[in-house]
Design goal:
Shape: globular
CATH topology of the largest domain: D-Maltodextrin-Binding Protein, domain 2
Structural class: alpha/beta
Helix content: 40-55%
CATH superfamily of the largest domain: Periplasmic binding protein-like II
Number of domains: 2
Distance between the termini: 108 Å
Radius of gyration: 24 Å
Largest sheet: 10 strands, mixed
Number of strands: 14
CATH class of the largest domain: Alpha Beta
Length: about 375
């Protein structure tokens, strides 16, 4: 190599070393994230990229469902979990975790684009999830069955939030004919079925050309109705961490970034309101819940059907038993248990009908 080439190579090598050091700081830590599709799609992926660009570490994002993320945060398999619901009192172990709300989002009812129904009331929604309304004709649409799509686990974040608002309990059983492991799979299915109805988040679907969002009580879900709180079905999105995690200090750094100016810019870019900027939404949460309860009571729904449980709509299965299903094998096992319970209920009902027919049930 000539002297000129040797002199040129030295600064190039030094430059490459400097670039490498900038791209991957020696102190950086890779954090593991797992949770529901909504918080992955709307928060984790973009916040992770922004954090890396800002000189932070790396965030490995694995989206699946809420329970799997929370359980792995408890066991230490991941550093951060994503959840669209608060901690559930029915699982005391969740109290060992820190639930940090990062953003406000809207719970939206979705159909395939082109569905002639564009509005739904809280009363109608209440009745649909209980199996009392089963046909689009009852909503002013065509005489076709409503194919209700839901998530297998009632402790899924979005489903939990909706049920808590409608029935006062996030683990309320519903009559759901079609169950999916996460919101991503549900959205794909709804986009293929002209008779489908399902639940998602505004940040997930506002730019999806295959889906349309229904107005609730005449209010359209959009950025404006989220910001001013006029849309009734609002919910925070959380990042969940374990204070006993060995990387807890790095997790706190990431969370400070997510709650800071650059993190809030990412949240706004996805159509949401940073939680810190939504103080009025947080302050009025109880008032919105009371308004929903009063609205349902005025229509004769609140408290009555939830106490009796859902009807078995055609093809429906109750999704309560799948609340322990963080993985597909467990989901299949839960589904098998529900099928056996449904079959047992049918046998008891047939036996009672036979007894009544013979006069044994007369009073």
């Amino acid at each position: 190599m000539s002297l000129r080439h040797r002199l040129t190579a030295v600064p190039l090598i030094a430059l490459c070393a400097a670039v490498s050091a900038f791209a991957a700081p020696a102190h950086s830590t890779t954090l593991r994230w797992r949770g529901d599709y909504t918080t992955a799609n709307s928060l984790a992926e973009s916040l992770g990229k922004a954090w890396a660009r800002d000189g932070g570490g790396r965030l490995d994002v694995d989206s699946f469902n809420t329970i799997s993320g929370i359980d792995q945060a408890l066991s230490g398999k991941v550093d951060i979990a994503g959840s669209a619901r608060p901690p559930f009192g029915g699982r005391p172990q969740e109290s060992r975790l820190e639930f940090t709300p990062l953003a406000w989002d809207e719970l939206v009812l979705i159909t395939r684009r082109g569905n002639p129904v564009h509005d739904i009331t809280l009363h109608q929604l209440y009745q649909i999830y209980m199996g009392y309304i089963t046909n689009w004709r009852q909503l002013g649409g065509p005489a076709r069955p409503i194919n209700l799509y839901s998530i297998a686990s009632p402790l899924d974040g979005l489903e939990f939030d909706l049920r808590a608002l409608l029935y006062g309990r996030g683990d309320q059983e519903i009559a759901a004919p079609r169950l999916y492991l996460n919101t991503q799979q549900l959205q794909i299915a709804v986009g293929l079925d002209p008779d489908a109805l399902g639940l998602s988040a505004y940040s997930n679907v506002y730019d999806n050309p295959k889906l349309q969002m229904l107005r609730v009580e005449g209010v359209r879900p959009d950025r404006a109705t989220l910001a001013n709180g006029t849309y009734p079905l609002l919910a925070p999105l959380y990042f969940v961490s374990n204070p006993n995690n060995p990387d807890a200090a790095e997790v706190r750094k990431f969370m400070r970034f997510a709650e800071g100016p650059k993190g809030r810019a990412v949240i706004r870019a996805h159509g949401m309101i940073p939680y810190a900027d939504g103080a009025a939404l947080a302050a009025s949460a109880d008032m919105r819940a009371q308004w929903i309860t009063a609205r349902l009571a005025a229509e004769g729904s609140a408290g009555k059907i939830a106490m009796n449980g859902p009807l078995a709509a055609p093809g429906a299965t109750y999704s309560q038993g799948a609340s322990i299903a963080p993985t597909s094998p467990n989901t299949r096992a839960a589904q098998a248990r529900m099928d056996r319970r449904d079959a047992s209920d049918k046998r008891r009902a047939a036996s009672k009908a036979s007894t009544d027919a013979d006069g044994g049930g007369a009073e």
